[in-house]
Structures are given as structure tokens and as C-alpha cells.
Specification:
The chain is mainly β and 323 residues long. Helix content is 4%, strand content 43%. InterPro entries: Pirin, Pirin_C_dom, Pirin_N_dom, RmlC-like_jellyroll, RmlC_Cupin_sf.
């Protein structure tokens, strides 16, 4: 998924002292009739959870009238994209030659590395579109790796009071085979009505819980749909409680604090203004760094990059305090 802000601000993606609940902001995904998404990462209070640097939550959107997701080919650098649906179907095409579909309960992970471009279009059979789109920053040693794509369908795992689907990393004895470049946790957690779930977690990880539906308390703090609750390192248990009469569903993210400073602007992750300016120039020049997407049939053949801001893009210093 593209960051389609026409005037995107740079984001440092550095660890911060924030601990608490992040509330989303709404942004459009594409042109004037675009669906709207709720963005919880990045924010000034917290731009990273582990290497997770971007989180959009969308839907449920009624798209039976044909106004769904249609994101033309657009570039990425220095990251992996994680697509996870609750409802609907999205067609994916990328410049590595991959043509795949995103379906509920199935992980699609695309590695951009040095450069890739891709398109995303909800299929004609989709009447409701509902899911999350996540990005993972690549460490400096791997940010120029080659393009790649992985697909994985995790088996549901039952624990007292909940069902887990672990699509990245490991939790409660379930392990994903999908490769990541830093230790990560990504899982869907469905919590039974009235249940409290105490999940054993890695104390070297920080964690975020993004609520998709229902009611949920995370470590005693109540959150609303599309909120993201944060728990820092040091804890061996993450406590989730559903006080409602209906099931609750959340996405659990985790990883050790990512200590590298990054500059993230539009769909690029780099380390400096010069990195970002170079990526933008190469995309606008149709450079082979990003390749080309075959088979996309939208109104425009690719997304143009927004203009760079007048100021130099700089990573902000790592705030001091708890991670």
C-alpha cells in the first residue's frame, strides 16, 4: 500500500519515550473517491515498535458499488510490506514479476530492498474491504537487498480465552517460517467475550496492540477501534482483557527497539535527505532500480512522487527515556 499523502512529512522512525495509547488519524488512499484509512504509525509520540514503522487500518468498507482499493504502481525502498486482510480480496502485482492475491488470514510479505514497485487493486468479487497494511524498516546492512515476496497461511492456535494466528515470529509455541531481517512478532489475536488472556512475551521486545473490532483493555488501559496500545521492553506478560459481550480482534506487533535512525518520506525509507532525493529522482526518471509492473490496468500507469519539501529532511535525535 502506498502512502498517498500529497505533502508527506519526513519521519525519523526513532525510538521514543512514549508509553500509552496512540490514536489514529484518517488519511485518503488515492484520489478524490478514495477509501480512507486510519494511520497509527508513524506519529511524533512514537514512530516505531521494533522495526514496525507504519500501520494503516482500514474498513470495513462497503465496496459493492465498485469504489474500492485501486493503487497504481508506486515505489518502495528499504522496507518490507506486510498485507493482512480480515475481509475482501486484493490483487498484487510487483516488479519482481509476482502476481498474487491477498486474502483473509493469509500473509503477503513483499521485500523492497534497494527498490521495487507494485500495484494493489481490490477484486471485482470484493464487497467488503477490511484489513491492515504494515511496513517493516530494514536494517542498514540489509536495506539494499534484492526484491522478494513470501506468502504464508498460519494455522490458528487456541490458548485459554483466545485464538492466535502468528504470521511473523513466534508466540505461544507457534512459529512463522517467513524470513525477516530483524526479530519480529506479528499475530492476529481473537479474544473471547469476557476473557482475560495473559500472553507470555519476549522481555527484550516492545509490543503494540492494534484493535480491529470489539472492546479491549491492554495492560489495564482501555482502547478503541484503530487505537494502538504500547508496552515497552522488560515485561514477560502481555495482558489482554475483553470486557464486552462480543469477540474482540486485534493485531499484535513486537520486536526489539530499532536503534538506527531513519528518514521516512512518502514510500521511501532511507538514512538521509540525499537518499530520499535520489530515490525520488530515480522514480520520476523511470529508472530500472524500481523495475516495472506488468498487467496493471488503471486510469494512470504509475503514481508520481510528490514534490520534496523546501527544507532538508533530517532524522530527529533519538529521544531519551524508556523505549
Amino acid at each position: 500500500m502506498s502512502n498517498t499523502d500529497i505533502a508527506p512529512a519526513e519521519v525519523d522512525c526513532a525510538a521514543s519515550a512514549f508509553t500509552g495509547v496512540l490514536h489514529p488519524r484518517e488519511v485518503p488512499l488515492g484520489g478524490p473517491r478514495a477509501i480512507r484509512v486510519r494511520r497509527t504509525l508513524p506519529q511524533r509520540d512514537r514512530s516505531l515498535i521494533g522495526a514496525w514503522c507504519f500501520a494503516d487500518h482500514y474498513g470495513p468498507h462497503d465496496v459493492h458499488d465498485g469504489v474500492g482499493m485501486d493503487v497504481p504502481p508506486h515505489p518502495h525502498t528499504g522496507l518490507q510490506t506486510v498485507s493482512w486482510l480480515f475481509d475482501g480480496e486484493v490483487e498484487h502485482r510487483d516488479s519482481a514479476g509476482v502476481h498474487a492475491y491477498v486474502r483473509p488470514g493469509e500473509l503477503n510479505l513483499m521485500t523492497a530492498g534497494a527498490g521495487i514497485c507494485h500495484s494493489e487493486v481490490s477484486t471485482a468479487a470484493t464487497t467488503v474491504l477490511h484489513g491492515v497494511q504494515l511496513w517493516v524498516a530494514l536494517p542498514d546492512a540489509d536495506r539494499d537487498t534484492g526484491r522478494d515476496f513470501a506468502h504464508y497461511t498460519p494455522e490458528p492456535v487456541s490458548v485459554p480465552g483466545a485464538t492466535l494466528r502468528v504470521f511473523l515470529g513466534q508466540l505461544a509455541g507457534s512459529r512463522s517460517p517467513v524470513h525477516t531481517f530483524t526479530p519480529l512478532l506479528g499475530a492476529q489475536v481473537d479474544i473471547d467475550p469476557g476473557a482475560q488472556v495473559d500472553l507470555g512475551v519476549d522481555p527484550t521486545f516492545e509490543h503494540g496492540v492494534l484493535l480491529d473490532q470489539g472492546h479491549l483493555e491492554v495492560a489495564g488501559s482501555a482502547i478503541d477501534v484503530a487505537d494502538l496500545a504500547y508496552q515497552g521492553t522488560g515485561g514477560v506478560t502481555l495482558t489482554l482483557r475483553n470486557p464486552g459481550a462480543q469477540p474482540a480482534r486485534a493485531i499484535l506487533l513486537g520486536g526489539p527497539p530499532f536503534e538506527e535512525q531513519l528518514v521516512m518520506w512518502w514510500n521511501f525509507v532511507g538514512r538521509s535527505h540525499d537518499d530520499i532525493a535520489t530515490y525520488r529522482r530515480l522514480w520520476e526518471a523511470h529508472d530500472g532500480r524500481f523495475g516495472a509492473v506488468d498487467g496493471y490496468r488503471g486510469a494512470v500507469d504509475r503514481l508520481p512522487a510528490p514534490p520534496l519539501p523546501n527544507a532538508t529532511l533530517r532524522p530527529r535525535p533519538n529521544p531519551k527515556g524508556l523505549s
